[in-house]
Specification:
globular, Aminoglycoside 3'-phosphotransferase, Chain: A, domain 2, alpha+beta
C-alpha cells in the first residue's frame, strides 16, 4: 500500500496501541485483535456516521478520515456551538435505540472492584486528598445499579466525535462498543463540559437523570487517572480528570 504524503502524524500512542495518520488514512495498530474485531463489527452495526474501513491486515486496521472537525479536546473549552452538541444528543439517541450488539455489558461486580482498587491507589499515591476520593467514590457508587442496557459507544470523548455545523459527520474508535448504560455515553461526551449537558439532553430527548450523569463523571475519572498517568498523558496534576474530581467533591 503506497501513500503519496510528505509526513506521518502520531495521533495516539500508548503501551498497547498506536494510531498514525498518513494523508487521509488512519492506521490503527493494536496488539489486542479482539478489540480490533469489535471495532470492525461495531462500525458495521452502528446506525450513525462512522469511518469507512479501507482494509485490514492484522495487527493494522486502515480507516478513512471522516469529514468535519472534532467537537473539542478534553481540558480545553469546546468551541462547538450549542446546536452541534444537540446534534450529538440526537445521534446518541439513534445509537441507543438500535438493536443490542453481541458484546455483553461490563459486570457491576467487576466495576465495583475496579473502583475500589483505583480509589485505594489515588489515596496511597497522594494524587488527591482522601476526602476528595471518598466523596467522589460515594457519588460514583450510585451508578452500580440495574438498568436497561443499550448499544453504547463506550469511549465517547470529545476527540472521537466529528461535527460540521449542526451535523455529526463521524464517530470514531469503536473498540469499546458494547451493551451498557446509556448515561455512560452522555457522561463521557460531556465530561469537563458541564455547560453543554443541557444541549446534549435537548437533542437526546426523554428523561435523563442528571445526578447519575454526574455520578458517571466521578466514576470515569476515578477509574481513568492511573491509566492516563502510566501511559504518558501528563502528570496527575495536569489531568482534566483530576480537576473534575476536585470540582465534584
Amino acid at each position: 500500500m503506497m501513500f503519496d504524503v510528505d509526513r506521518v502524524d502520531v495521533v495516539l500512542a500508548n503501551n498497547d496501541r498506536v494510531t498514525l495518520r498518513v494523508g487521509d488514512t488512519f492506521l490503527k495498530v493494536d496488539v489486542d485483535q479482539e478489540r480490533s474485531d469489535i471495532e470492525v463489527e461495531a462500525i458495521g452495526l452502528a446506525p450513525v456516521p462512522t469511518p469507512e474501513i479501507l482494509w485490514r491486515e492484522p495487527p493494522v486496521l486502515a480507516l478513512a478520515a471522516v469529514p468535519g472537525r472534532t467537537l473539542g479536546r478534553l481540558g480545553t473549552p469546546s468551541t462547538g456551538p450549542a446546536n452541534a452538541w444537540a446534534a450529538v444528543g440526537r445521534t446518541l439517541r439513534t445509537l441507543h435505540d438500535a438493536p443490542l450488539p453481541p458484546w455483553p455489558a461490563k459486570s457491576l461486580a467487576d466495576l465495583s472492584s475496579r473502583l475500589s482498587n483505583e480509589c485505594d491507589w489515588l489515596v496511597a499515591s497522594g494524587v488527591l486528598p482522601a476526602a476528595v476520593v471518598s466523596s467522589n467514590r460515594q457519588l460514583a457508587e450510585t451508578v452500580l445499579r440495574s438498568h436497561e442496557p443499550v448499544f453504547i459507544h463506550g469511549d465517547l470523548h470529545l476527540e472521537h466525535v466529528f461535527v460540521d455545523g449542526d451535523q455529526v459527520t463521524g464517530i470514531i474508535d469503536w473498540s469499546e462498543a458494547r451493551r451498557g448504560d446509556p448515561l455512560f455515553d452522555i457522561a463521557s461526551i460531556t465530561l469537563a463540559n458541564e455547560e453543554h449537558l443541557d444541549h446534549v439532553i435537548a437533542g437526546y430527548g426523554g428523561d435523563v437523570d442528571r445526578d447519575l450523569v454526574r455520578a458517571w463523571w466521578s466514576c470515569r475519572c476515578l477509574l481513568g487517572v492511573r491509566w492516563l498517568f502510566e501511559n504518558g498523558y501528563g502528570s496527575t496534576d495536569e489531568l482534566p480528570e483530576v480537576a473534575v474530581l476536585r470540582s465534584q467533591a
